[in-house]
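quick one before i forget lol
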Amino acid sequence: MSKVLVTLDYEELEYCAVSGARRNIRAMQKDRKPRDNTKYSAQNWWQSNITGVIGEYAVAKSLGEHWQDLEADRGGFDVLSYQVRSTEHTSPKLAARPNDDLNHIYILAQVYKSRVLIHGWATGYEIQQLGAQEHGTIRLHHDMLNDMSLLPHPTIYTAQVTEWERPDYQ
């Protein structure tokens, strides 16, 4: 399976951290509530916004796109026509939340320090059909995702964007 490993430099990480904090503040200003049933104490709300931005930034970088904090809704998309789900979990799963658009393509990004492993992608329908219910969402294990080489937009390989080779991660 073709996975993509993206390395971010310290300036990129700082930009992501600030953008994630700003995203969190905007959510508080708009009184946004979590879309799943996770208690606030278990959400890691600040951390999850920063981790989310790091994943989005890495996916954009892998597709040759420039990610920037638009401070506005992107019509449900994080990068191009994709939704990015980011995590720091060691055994990541791609989540589809209640009311997510099943027609969208979701990409799983696993963040570890300055490196992001992009495991693959699935449509909302695939997550719903193949995944399992966990904590108010449906989650699909990373080994069941579509290969990144099959994504409609090609990966642009560079010195910081490489094809992942086992066991090179963490």
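fyi The longest strand covers residues 115-123.
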